[in-house]
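name: query_chain
kind: protein
chains: 1
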Amino acid sequence: MLVDHALELPLHWRMPRLEARWFIDEYEKSKDKNPIILELAILDYNIVQSIHQEDLRYASTWWKELGLGKRFSFARDRLMENFLWTVGMVIAPEDGKSRIFLTMVYALITVIDDVYDVYGTLDELELFTDVVERWDINAIQRLPDYMKIYYHALYNSVNEMAFDTLKEQGINVIPFLKKLWTDLCKAYLLEAKWYYIGYTPTLQEYIDNAWISIGGSLVLAHSYLVNDHITEEGLHSIQENYSDIVYRFSVIVRLANDLGTSSYELKRGDIPKSIQCYMHESGASEEEAREHIRKLIDSTWKKINEDQMAKLHFS
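structure:
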């Protein structure tokens, strides 16, 4: 059992707290278990779980007061899932602020993704993208009412996070965040244009845009802002050049997401995903396309590992 579990997925692909929960159950079955170690492991797990529950309560209150879940009935209301992703990203129990902020970001991304994918007209989406790029609350008069509501929520939430950074670290991150949200909306807009004209991009065209539309770079940037030691140089580096690891991380998340959800997303009116793009480009069957995407994920992981190993210095 232990060997099978260890070989199923690499450790760095797993969520540490879920892995701990699984191992507690397995260790409890062992004849050679140390009762004190087991008791401490259970106590630690329960303490961390209670911290996570408190973080979730805070995020849930924010989401309820924001009101987007009720007002945008067409959009996915998945705050619990959004929070669970942050638990996998932000492991340290004391980093609750990061988990809360990232849950807010994930929730905002989920709603606007659905606006671009299944609800907004192309004219509305072009207007909204322009307003986000301007980052001017006075520009929202051009938007339909439902977009005004979302833009207010986005503008106020992001500005609140930016004010928190300014207050604690003395750095104005609004220009930085504005660019990231604009990049995301422009990527969504390109996908919407493809959908409206019935265009199926090549796989490379799709990846060149989809690694941004998955939102990974935006989420990682927000997580950097909660760090206690951000610098102007660090912000400039991220803003000017997305690093290779951010790009590759985003590609992996996008392709893995496509493997799991592309059929559902196509049914609800989304654009062709990586699987369909490869099928259209190469004439491959769906299973052949899925295998090709899995190989792309594996090769991208290898590049990440190679890059990280190259940075290590061995004596």
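note: Residues 12-193 form a domain with the Farnesyl Diphosphate Synthase fold (CATH 1.10.600.10).
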